[in-house]
Design brief:
Blueprint lengths: L1 E6 L2 H18 L2 H9 L6 E2 L9 E2 L3 H8 L18 H17 L5 E7 L6 H15 L6 E5 L6 H6 L6 H14 L21 H9 L3 H9 L3 H7 L5 H11 L19
Parallel strand pairs: 1-2, 1-3, 1-4, 4-5
Helix pairs in contact: 1-2, 3-4, 4-5, 7-8, 10-11
């Protein structure tokens, strides 16, 4: 299953891909779960951007357009209405995805993701992405999944944090007192952009995890999906998990014997 993601940074890709694997593993067919543990590449492949990355930088669409040669970015309204924030960018991204899919006909592009921090434009940016998806769905041969971390992807990671030691419990307690709320249960309230500000999600995550990338990863790879869904309603995490379940899991239906995603011969 070939997948393509547009996002802003490698950390965003790691977060999105970890969550996709979690949903496929926990809510897909049993054979998918088995193969994800032993041969994940036989289940899903992330399209490279041509620069050695497993994601496409949503801020470099013009560069991809030049590289691909004949991608036409169509300006204009969406169903007769002006595009909201992010709508034109998403439209351009989907045009690039279509061309990428054409370049390798041997592997069909099955799903395209946009994972984009909402920052302080949550409602209007979600509207713009939805406008672009509605329009693109009329011609696209791939599924479209929208990831809208609100305010940013660290809020999704925080939703999965659960103390593993007395030291971590102490850190969480200190932050609760400092903030006046739980940064894990209500991560969407961490809306400061300044990384030194009390309510900045990057600062809070670094403090809780000790700036340990492996510890951060476990917040997503080991947390029960139900915890992520319950805590991630306001941050957009629950919506993303539900979209993956509804739009990507069905691509793996069937049995490994009849699927092109069967275990490779060894």
């Amino acid at each position: 299953m070939k997948l393509l993601v547009f996002c802003e940074a490698h950390a965003d890709f790691l977060t999105a891909s970890a969550l996709v694997d979690r949903v496929l593993h926990d809510e897909g067919p049993d054979w998918v779960s088995d193969l994800l543990r032993s041969h994940p590449e036989s289940i899903r492949e992330w399209a490279s951007d041509g620069y050695g990355k497993e994601f496409f930088d949503i801020h470099k669409l013009e560069a991809y357009r030049r590289d691909l040669g004949n991608v036409r970015f169509m300006p204009g309204h969406f169903d007769g209405k002006p595009g909201a924030v992010g709508a034109q960018t998403a439209r351009n991204a989907f045009a690039i995805a279509r061309e990428v899919g054409k370049r390798d006909p041997s592997t069909r592009l099955e799903a395209v993701f946009i994972v984009w921090d909402m920052d302080d434009q949550g409602e209007i940016r979600r509207t713009g992405l939805a406008q672009a998806r509605t329009e693109t769905s009329r011609w696209a041969s791939f599924q479209i999944v929208l990831g809208c971390p609100d305010p940013m992807r660290e809020a999704w990671v925080l939703a999965g944090f659960e103390p593993e030691s007395d030291q971590e419990r102490a850190r969480l307690g200190e932050l609760r007192r400092e903030l006046g709320f739980s940064p894990c249960d209500e991560a969407h309230q961490l809306d400061a952009k300044d990384e030194q500000a009390k309510r900045n999600p990057k600062r809070v995550l670094r403090r809780l995890t000790g700036d340990d990338r492996e510890r951060e990863a476990r917040c997503l790879t080991e947390a029960p999906l139900e915890r992520l869904r319950e805590r991630g309603v306001a941050s957009g995490l629950r919506a993303f998990l539900e979209e993956v379940k509804a739009r990507v899991v069905p691509l793996c239906q069937g049995s490994p014997a009849s699927s092109r995603y069967a275990r490779p011969q060894e």
